[in-house]
Amino acid sequence: MVDFQHIKWVDDKGHVKPPIWLYAILVYLARGWCVWIASLTQASDRAAIVRLFYPDRFDFIQALIAGIGAVILFGLVIAERQRKPQWLAPVFRQMMIVLWGLLLLDGVLLGQRLYHADYLFSWFFAVDILLLFWSGLYLLYSKHLKFYVKDWHREEGVVDGQ
Length: 162
Fold this sequence. Notes:
mainly alpha
C-alpha cells in the first residue's frame, strides 16, 4: 500500500481531492442561487436581500439562469467524491470546458449590466471583474484542478505511467 499522507491533494483512497478554489469559483458563479437561499432566511422581507445584490429583477433572473451550470457542476463534484454513478465520469471529463463556458457567460452578463449602468463605476462591478479575471487565471494555471479533473478518468488502482 502506498502512503499518500505527505501529499495534500490526495485523500486516503488515493484520489485527488477537489481544490478549495474550485468550490469558491462555483459559489461565485452560482451567487444568484446563494443570494436566493440567503433570502429564504429572512422572515419579514424575503426580497430585501435579493434587492440589495440585484436591484433589477431581470439581473437576478439572469443570475439564476447562468448559475444553473455551477449548481450542476457542484453536483458532479459530489458524484466524483462518491465515484458513482459511473455514467457521470464522461460528463465530469467536460468540466473544464463547462467552467470556461460559464465564465464566458458570466462575463457577457457582466458586460450587459455595465452597459445598462452606462459604464459607471461600482464596487460590485469592480469586484465581479476582479473575481472573473482571477477565476480565469485559476482555470488556466491550476495544476491541482487539472489533476483533479483527470483523476476520475484513470482506472481504479492504476496510476498513470505504471
